[in-house]
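Provenance

Sequences were taken from public entries as deposited. Structures were produced by running a predictor on each sequence independently, with no templates supplied. The record for ABC transporter ATP-binding protein from Rhodoferax sediminis is shown for reference.
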Amino acid sequence: MLEVRHLNVWYGAAQALFDVSLQVAAGELVVLEGLNGAGKSTLLQAIMGLSPRATGAISYQKKSIERWEPHRRALIGLGYVAEDRRLFTGLTVRENLRLAARGDVPAREAQALQLFPALATMLDRPSSQMSGGEQQMLAIARTLMTGPTLLLLDEPCEGIAPLLVEAVREALLLLKRQGVTLLVAEQNQILAAHADRTLTLAAGRLQQC
Ligand code: ATP
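Predicted structure for ABC transporter ATP-binding protein:
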């Protein structure tokens, strides 16, 4: 369903990804491993259309999307949760959820809150007053409000309290059981044991296993 072929990405004159090709099938959980600076974030951003300069082909559900703007990629089912979460910290939890929402908003909100019940108890709280783990749950829930079929997650369990790591992991595994496809960059092996496959990036190149 997702196919990346011969992807190269540059930041200015510096090349960050070299000839990366991969496929992710519908319903899979694929973990993307690699050291700091290996290119994990760059790969997820390129798939979402957020790279400054990229060449190569990206298709999703048989549509060539490599020239599409990020919002158009979101419309066909791609959802991206950045490592820094990118919440609107001046807004409440509810406002953050509704800002990006599309489609049947009440149903999507109910589904997101079912996945992360802790958020339901803090809907009127400014997101600036949440812990790192709570913010991570909100960032994922907000992306779910767009109805993604493929979730691209950058270090979802990094730097958050163990109890909330567990909540995030359980929620992601439930999403997988509901049929959502997951491509997850992580270094801390929280989801690796549940992965259908693991891909490893090193210095911008995908390693052959
Ligand atoms: P980390 O876990 O530390 O984020 P990563 O595997 O996600 O690591 P990337 O953030 O994708 O790696 O970085 C890949 C390479 O691209 C690194 O050499 C990094 O310095 C460089 N890079 C990333 N973002 C930028 C940017 N905005 N401008 C210039 N270079 C960048």
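DSSP finds seven helices and ten strands in the chain.
Residues 2-208 form a domain with the Rossmann fold fold (CATH 3.40.50.300).
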